[in-house]
Design brief:
Shape: globular
Helix content: 40-55%
Strand content: 15-25%
Mean pLDDT: 94
Strand order of the largest sheet: 2-1-3-4
Low-confidence stretches: none
CATH topology of the largest domain: Rossmann fold
Number of domains: 2
CATH architecture of the largest domain: 3-Layer(aba) Sandwich
CATH class of the largest domain: Alpha Beta
Order of helices and strands: EHEHHEHEHEHEHEHEH
Radius of gyration: 16 Å
Largest sheet: 4 strands, parallel
């Protein structure tokens, strides 16, 4: 069987998973690993609280074990739920999109801004950014005030993302943006065009790293 990267959306929203799957198109290359995307049926419609994060760890680990033919796994939620438990559960690479998205941003600019969905997400992100030792490179984390399900309203969601991205650029000094939710994937190109600075879609960043890991045997 050809190498396969499994991208797991830890929420149960099929619309989010379809958006993630569409964002994988540039990374599906001839001779490259297959990239499969799936939703976690046991997950909430959106992961918006610490309780949501903790609730999906056990089903995520079970899903990894049930798909042990995969060459690598990507956890497609910006909270990186269950990332370290998942790494304990398999010898295959497991990548979290927040970790990979922020590390990619460091190569594109000096200070990165995060576009979050809700204000209550920000303290959770800041804890993680601090644990990664990246607080000094963070310009700011600002929220658009829309939940995961509300991202389905394209005009409203993109409008708010452009407003917040512009604030991060002009008020906070960000020279690269990181999308703080996998449900934002379909907006990356339009957001980048509007704000005029690089925008990292973190699932793309994580899968790009996973491809390297698989091809290089790391």
């Amino acid at each position: 069987m050809a190498d396969r990267i499994l991208v797991i959306n830890p929420n149960s929203s099929e619309a989010v998973t379809r958006g993630i799957d569409a964002a994988m198109a540039p990374l599906r290359l001839p001779g490259g690993p297959a990239i499969d995307c799936m939703s976690l049926a046991e997950g909430p419609p959106g992961i918006e609280t610490q309780a949501h994060v903790e609730s999906v760890v056990a089903p995520l680990v079970r899903t990894l074990r049930q798909n042990d033919d995969a060459a690598a796994f990507v956890i497609a939620c910006f909270s990186d739920p269950g990332l370290f438990a998942a790494r304990e559960a398999t010898s295959r690479p497991v990548l979290g999109i927040a970790e990979c998205g922020m590390l990619t941003a460091l190569t594109l600019g000096e200070r990165f801004g995060v576009i979050s969905i809700l204000r209550r997400s920000i303290p959770r992100h800041l804890r993680y950014i601090g644990a990664m030792g990246l607080t000094g490179r963070l310009a700011a984390d600002r929220a658009i005030g829309l939940g995961v399900v509300e991202l389905s309203d394209d005009a409203r969601a993109l409008g708010r993302m452009i407003e917040v991205g512009t604030e991060l650029r002009d008020r906070d000094g960000a020279d690269v943006l990181v999308m703080g939710c996998a449900g934002m994937a379909r907006f990356r190109d339009r957001l980048a065009d509007a704000v005029g600075i690089p925008v990292v879609e973190p699932t793309q960043a994580a899968v790009a790293m996973a491809i390297g890991r698989v091809r290089l045997g790391w």
